[in-house]
Every structure is written in structure tokens, then in C-alpha cells.
Amino acid sequence: MSTVKKIGIIGFGTVGSGVYETLVTKREKITHLIGSDLEIPVILVKDAARKRHVANDTKVTDRFEEVIALADLDVVIEVSPDAETGYPYVHALLSKGITVITANKELVAKHGETLLPLADANNCRLYYEAAVAGGIPVLSSIRHTLKTNDILQLEGIVNGTSNFILTKMREEGAAFDVALAEAQEKGYAEAVPDKDVDGWDAYFKTTILSQWLFGRAPVWQSAIPIGIRGIRLEDLTLAEKIGGRIKHVAALENISGQPVASVRPHLILTEHPLYAVEGVNNAIHLEGSIVGSIAFQGPGAGKFPTASAIVEDLVNHLSHTSEKQPDVLNISMTRNEEKSFTPKQTKVWFVTGKQLTLQLEGSRSIDTLSNILYSEGKEAVLLTGNEREVISTMTKLNDSITIYPVTGAQLEKLENMNKKAVFSR
């Protein structure tokens, strides 16, 4: 067995401790796979005075200087909570030629344009499988098993917190605040959950997916993501009446070679692979030019699922079996090219609100695919048309409406489905 590989860890919360435990409990298998023994000489934490259950030969410190001073570190695993915290650490390590494996999606989305070329210039790597879908190995799977495919479209449930909340609301009739509180109690949501429920977590992950697939950041259909705060129980009930479920979806589409993205709630119909993805699970559904429709599903967050993705990156790196880093054309989160994007003009929309019948009277710009549905004083209808025209038509009397893109069926199927449906007050 060759030289011992030395691994540092930055961050020792839920994920960091899960990585440490995995390295300890799976040490024999890992050393067999990489052909070397391994050590964890240092762990960087915020509070070094707090007791951690680690081996005596592992130093726990709150001083990054003690980490960067170690000349023989092979890899550092970085699991700090945000880009502001992680960037100085990762920049310094890559500058020194030390490979970094991170689960920090905000870091990669905001600073990948700087960090990835820096790693290349210093003959090391920045790995981030765990930053996209927790325990689902979606990046390596796409890069390794779909080399000859052009990815035409991707849709994903990539935030387990939002998915848990919507599942709880629909299955148990819980209000948003109640479901969020339970997500926080179970450790699925942070004390300040804004990045999850307002869509930013999914936004960062979509940026990373775009870079991985297309070598560049996407053009965004809207300046900011749309989260799940505005979704009410009545919307979930109305969605079920029409044969669907409301899910928070990250969408990425190749339009004439340009990746175009959105993050917003969708109405997912029954035959779509994302329809049955519940609780904290994540899923990625994509359309390949050769393979057609394919889906990846599994635990998107949590201590050991995320640790699994990190440790797999570590093993692949140390055993020299990792996929080549895709070329970086532009991973920055810019919208400068949005003016050149022409969105598709016709789509199916699920609209909820009040006074929908009155608002639809005389409209020539949009077509209805269903009768009006009713639930607890709220109404819903399926429409086709340009989104701007739908918004203009449906808000002419009030601004109480919510508009969801419909995913999972062709127009003919929707028409047939709704001819057979029974709509009642």
C-alpha cells in the first residue's frame, strides 16, 4: 500500500460529521479502493472549544492558518454553509494546489467562474457532486453514461425542504407555516429558511447543472426564482382535482444551443416522473437526444446521503477514476444575454384565483382546456397561451391569481382528460 492520503475537513455540522463518520466506518473499503491508507489530521470548526468525538490524532481548530500550513494535505472537504464563508478557504487551498471537494452549492454557483480555472491552473480539482442533489450522483452519471447524448431538457425537484413542505401540506392539510416548522424541527430546514423556500437553493443548483451540461450559466426567464411561500392549501386541492400535484421545479432547456432556466412551482401531471417524488427526496428528469426520457431519484439532503456523494468524489479522485471537469465558458450568474432569448409562445398554464369566469369573458388571446374548478372559495382553470397574455387577461379584475406551468402531458391528452372530468363547486 502506497503513501498515506491526508484529508482535511472544513465544517463539522450535520454533513461534516457525516463525512467523518463515513470515512471512519468505511475506512477498510475506501483504502482498498484507493490503494492507500488515509488519515484525517485536521478539522476546521467555528467553535474549537466544543467537544467533538474524533480520534486523538485529529486536530480540531478554529484557525484556518493551521489547515493551510499543512504542506502534505491531499484533499480538503469543505462543507461550510454559504459562499461568503467558504470562498476564502477554497480559494486559498486551490491556490496552493490542494484539491477541494465541496457540498456548497452557493459557492460553486457564485464563484465557480473563478475557482474552477484556479484549480486547473494549479493542477488540482474542485469537485461538487454533493452540491446539486445530495446523495443522487447526477453530475457524474450524466458525464459518464450520457457522453454521446445532447441534453435537450432537464426538470428537477432539487430542494428537499420545499418538497417536504408541499407534501406535508397536501397529505395532512397543514398550513405552510406549520409544515415549515416541522421541517425545521426535523432538521430539513434552517432556522432562517429563506434560501430553501424562496427558491435560491434551487437557483444555485440549476446554475451548476447548466455549467456542467452546457459549459455556461443559463439565461434566466425571470430575474429571481419563485419559491413556495405563496402556495396555499386550496391550490394543492385544486391541483389534485385536475389530476396533478404542485411541485417546486428547476427547469433547464436547450433552446438553439442556449441554456434557458427557470425555478418556480409547476403543476405536475400524473404520468410525469416527478409526480410521485415526495418528502425530502430529490429527482432529476432529463431528455437526451438518443436515450430519450431518463430519471434519477433519491435522498437529496441529509447527513449520510450528502456524505455519500462527497466520499464518492474523494474515492474517484484518489483512485484516478473521476470524470474530466467540463470546460468553463461562463458559470457566472449573469442575465446579460437575456435580450437575445425568445421564449416559446404557447404553453399550458394552471391558474388559480377568484373571478376567473369574469376575467376570461371575451378573451381571444388564450384558450381554456377545462371548466372552472372550485375549492373553499378559490377557483382554478387550465389555459393555453402566451404567459404575458395570460397574466394580462387574468389580472384585469384583481391580482389574486397564481399561474403555474403545466408539466407532464401533451395538449391532446389534457383535452381528452378534461372532457371526462367532473367539475363541481
TrEMBL record:
Superkingdom of the source species: Bacteria
GO biological process: methionine biosynthetic process; threonine biosynthetic process
Catalytic activity annotation: L-homoserine + NADP(+) = L-aspartate 4-semialdehyde + NADPH + H(+)
Presence of keyword Electron transport: no
Record keyword Lipid biosynthesis present: no
Pfam families from the UniProt entry: Homoserine_dh, NAD_binding_3
Pathway: Amino-acid biosynthesis; L-threonine biosynthesis; L-threonine from L-aspartate: step 3/5; Amino-acid biosynthesis; L-methionine biosynthesis via de novo pathway; L-homoserine from L-aspartate: step 3/3
InterPro entries: Asp/hSer_DH_NAD-bd (IPR005106), HDH_cat (IPR001342), NAD(P)-bd_dom_sf (IPR036291)
GO molecular function: homoserine dehydrogenase activity; NADP binding
Keyword terms: Amino-acid biosynthesis, Methionine biosynthesis, Oxidoreductase, Sodium, Threonine biosynthesis
All copies of domain Homoserine dehydrogenase catalytic, residue ranges: 137-315
EC number: 1.1.1.3
Class of the enzyme per the UniProt entry, highest EC level: oxidoreductase
Ranges where the Aspartate/homoserine dehydrogenase NAD-binding domain occurs: 11-129
PANTHER family, alphabetized: HOMOSERINE DEHYDROGENASE
Protein family per UniProt: Belongs to the homoserine dehydrogenase family.
Identification of the protein by name: Homoserine dehydrogenase
